[in-house]
Amino acid sequence: MLAALAQDTRLSIFKLLVQAGTEGVAAGEIAERLGVPGATLSFHLKNLTHAGLAVQRQQSRFIYYTADFDAMNGLLAYLTDQCCSESSPTESPSSCATSLACALK
């Protein structure tokens, strides 16, 4: 999942999907809003889907993509657990988690 998000275009797509919420965004709209060519967008959406960060659904003749919020929350929980389990004595796990969430924005 982290490898998928490490690429700038995929991170921008994922951010757009998260902001769109559970309704998702049609592939054509993603391409238009981010200025990504269709073939390039397909490659990146496939990568995000394969990583478990996005799901697709067909509605009429359009394909909509949505962020997989359960997977995203699982990743954040894992990172919080792994990165904050040995936080400094002056830093509480909740402040560590807040810092981690802000760093991922």
From TrEMBL:
Gene3D superfamilies: Winged helix-like DNA-binding domain superfamily/Winged helix DNA-binding domain. Residues 1-87 form the HTH arsR-type domain. CDD domains: HTH_ARSR. It comes from the Bacteria. InterPro entries: ArsR-like_HTH, HTH_ArsR_DNA-bd_dom, Metal_resp_trans_reg, WH-like_DNA-bd_sf, WH_DNA-bd_sf. Keywords: DNA-binding, Transcription, Transcription regulation. This is Metalloregulator ArsR/SmtB family transcription factor. The lineage of its organism: Bacteria, Pseudomonadati, Pseudomonadota, Betaproteobacteria, Neisseriales.
